[in-house]
Design a protein that fits this description.
This protein is of the alpha+beta class and 76 residues long. 20% of the residues lie in helices and 33% in strands. A four-stranded antiparallel sheet has the order 2-3-1-4. This is HMA domain-containing protein.
Amino acid sequence: MTTDKIEVTIRIDKNEARSLGEVVGDLKSQGLEQVQSHERFMIVNGSVNPDALDALRAVKGVASVRQDTAYKTQAN
C-alpha cells in the first residue's frame, strides 16, 4: 500500500547557527521531497510521507512543521 505524500511548510529557527542548506540536506535525508527553500523567510516547503513528520520535527534547526491544507476537487 502506498501512502499519499502530504505537503508541508517547515519554519527554520532564525537563531540556528547552521546554514539553511545544511538543514535542508538533513530534511531531505528524512524523506522531504520537491523541496523549495526560501532563505529570506527561513521557510522550506516540500512533500513527505505522513509518517515522517516526527522525523522532520526532530531535525536540528527546525522550529515547526505544519501540514498544508490542500483543497482538492472531489472526483465524480
